[in-house]
Amino acid sequence: MTTFAIVGSGFRARALLGVARELDTVRCVGAVVRTPRHLEVPTFPSLDACLHEAQVDFVLTATPKPLTPQYIVEAVDRGLPVLAETPPAPDLAGLRALWSAVASSGRVAVAEQYPLMPTHAARKALVATGALGTPTQVQVSSTQQYHAIALIRGLLGAGRGPVSVRATRFTAPLVSPLSRAGWTDDEAEHPTTTTIATVDFGDGRSGVYDFTEQQTRNLLRFRRLTVRGSAGELHNDEVVRMTGPRTLVRTPLVRRQTGYDLDLVGYDTEHISLGDEVLYRNPYPGRRWMDDEIAMATLLEQTASWVRGEGLEPYPLAEGVQDHQIALAIEEAADTDATVTTSAEAWTELTTAAR
């Protein structure tokens, strides 16, 4: 059993605690909180107080952006691996300072769960088969900032070098029927901002970022993801490609979802396939988990494997800081109405290709 302490008690912390409770391989032994509150695990006023009472194999930070770097450094200084919720620092200066403080330790990974969601994992597996040829552009309209960049970079196989960004914003009325708390019962239109950006990675590779405020929860906006390749294209859950001379075919990605109609197995995701090829299998059959819970569980178990020395970190710090650096460039480009080229940083020196 791999144990961890969580720092924070907000929405994300509680979601991770709920998933960890159902796993047999990891267990949360305590939460570090600034003010006393009721949680399902013992709470402590500081990390040192937690470490004094419990055996901890790694620390999971789920804190507001300005506080995250200090808790990462604190844990690393105590010799502990860290899984840091996104983003690991709030701004470019913070990313640089954090990298300088902890990168050499090799003890920090980032809790970027989006590539681990079943649909995104299946899409990445499809791209890896070469069915689309060389991926040249990824368009994402579903989630914000660093999450979207993680998807774009991962599906493109883009590295951590400088990029050029152009961006603009539009404000238009939009009804917001849902929030994190549930139904709002608010039918009024509210001014809502959409940011659209293009990211030039070089070598003919590009990304299109299209995000409307609260889009992750506002189901009046579709989620869209397109991967354009030299030999075909994936749009959401459908692929177009050539299978022979003068032969164009369109094939859907199909999720085997049990529990419908007279399927009495129970509601669950089994796998996602393209024709007779299974691209993704749910590692947690029978849990009845939604995609985000599957991704969080995968993230926690990959982290446990990493800290035991049995696998790589789930998402390296270098990738997480690169994602946020580009996300910050998008905001800067939209603010200034000018092209922004990101700077080469210390984390760009280690590799030329994203995992």
How would you explain this protein's 3D organization?
The structure is a single chain. The protein has helices at residues 11-21, 47-53, 68-77, 92-102, 118-128, 145-156, 291-307, 317-336; strands spanning 2-7, 26-32, 43-44, 58-61, 82-85, 108-111, 135-141, 164-175, 178-179, 182-183, 189-202, 205-212, 224-229, 232-235, 238-244, 247-258, 268-274, 277-281, 340-341. It has 355 residues and is of the alpha/beta class.
List keywords for this structure.
355 residues, alpha/beta, six-stranded parallel β-sheet, 8 helices, disordered C terminus
Q: What distance separates the N and C termini?
A: 28 Å
Spatial arrangement of strands, main beta sheet: 18-17-16-15-14-13-7-12-11-8-19
Q: Total strand count, please?
A: 19
Radius of gyration computed on alpha carbons: 21 Å
Report the portion of residues in β strands. Answer: 25-35%
Mean pLDDT: 95
The biggest sheet amounts to: 11 strands, mixed
Q: From N to C, what is the helix and strand string?
A: EHEEHEHEHEHEHEEEEEEEEEEEHHE
What best-fitting shape do the alpha-carbon axes yield? globular
Could you say which structural class the secondary elements and strand pairing correspond to?
A: alpha/beta
Helical stretch tally: 8
Brief sketch in words of this structure:
The chain has 355 residues and is α/β, with parallel strands linked by helices. Helices cover 28% and strands 32% of the residues.
